[in-house]
Design a protein that fits this description.
This protein is an alpha/beta fold. The protein has helices spanning 22-27, 68-75, 110-122, 142-148, 167-176, 190-200, 236-239, 250-257, 261-278; strands spanning 2-9, 14-20, 33-37, 45-53, 58-64, 81-82, 84-89, 100-106, 126-133, 151-156, 183-187, 206-210, 226-229, 232-235, 242-244. The strands form 3 sheets. Strands 6-1-2-5-4-3-7 form a 7-stranded antiparallel β-sheet, with helices on both faces. Strands 10-9-8-11-12-15 form a 6-stranded mixed β-sheet, with helices on both faces. Strands 13-14 form a two-stranded antiparallel sheet.
């Protein structure tokens, strides 16, 4: 059992939890993830390690309440326990040698982009951050990103924060203005990562995307997180989750991402019915 020692609400949809998991905190690195199960009857879900404190033995996760399991997770409070919390899983981000990087987070992807930006900053790299949200009320980790970025640019779809547009608009301007990045790291919705890869492709800028596909066992045995990279089948849980954005088959990934929508809706409805019965 793993104790929740901190819980914060970052916006109406997103929560942060710090979990006591000293063995995971001891080995965790940027880009890796955990798989948790709330209780013995719960499903396994992957969540990226957003931060860790080796001295205190804490692992931080940030999640959006979009499905039955994340909504159940969001109902837990400080002092409650999670049944299973396994990790660190996946390959750590390969950041060595990078001197100047643009780190891009789209929506909740900012929670995954932050540990990469932080790791690069700690390594002495120059980091520019670009994050995008639907509106200003959904902005998360602004202070945290500001501390590890030379410049932080935040865009909103509706312009409610005073900067209307998309992360690709900002990235394109930075490149056009002469920023010579060693790499661009983009983490967020598949359509956003695909768009970023198309912006960087003409300049041949190394582009890393995080393919946080559906994962079940985290060992590559179930095949639930298959992605096609450079014409070859890879498994996000063991070969990634980071891949070359110019080689990822985003079209196939998006089709596979829609396969489970009906089951997600059914699970969500069941959770709502259970809540009504317990009310």
């Amino acid at each position: 059992m793993f104790e929740i020692v901190e819980k914060l609400t970052l916006n109406s949809q997103v929560k942060l939890m710090s979990v006591k998991a000293p063995k995971i905190a001891e080995k965790a690195q940027a880009g890796q993830f955990i798989i948790l199960r709330i209780d013995e009857n719960g499903e396994r879900i992957p969540l990226t390690i957003s931060d860790y404190d080796r001295e205190k033995g804490l692992v931080t996760i940030i999640f959006q309440e979009v499905g039955a399991t994340t909504k159940r997770l969001g109902m837990l409070e400080k002092g409650d326990f999670i049944q299973n919390f396994v990790g660190p899983l996946g390959r750590a981000s390969e950041l060595e040698g990078l001197k100047k990087v643009c780190v891009i987070g789209g929506g909740l992807g900012t929670a995954i982009a932050y540990p990469q930006a932080k790791a690069l900053h700690d390594m002495g790299a120059v980091v520019d951050g670009v994050t995008g949200f639907r509106n200003k009320d959904l902005i998360i980790l602004e202070d945290e990103m500001s501390k590890v970025c030379r410049n932080l640019y935040i865009a909103t779809d509706d312009g409610s924060n005073g900067n209307k547009g998309f992360v690709t608009n900002i990235l394109q301007k930075l490149i056009d203005d002469g920023e010579d990045y060693d790499a661009v790291i983009a983490i967020g919705p598949l359509v956003m990562m695909r768009a970023v890869a198309e912006v960087t492709r003409p300049k041949g800028i190394k582009t890393i995307v995080s393919m946080n596909s559906i994962m079940i066992d985290g060992t590559g045995m179930c095949g639930g997180c298959r992605v096609i990279v450079g014409g070859e089948t890879k498994f996000a849980c063991v070969d990634g989750p980071d891949f070359d954005g110019h080689l990822v088959d985003f079209e196939t990934a998006m089709r596979r991402g829609n396969m489970y929508k009906a089951m997600e809706r059914e699970a969500d409805c069941n959770l709502m019915k259970a809540g009504e019965q317990n009310a």
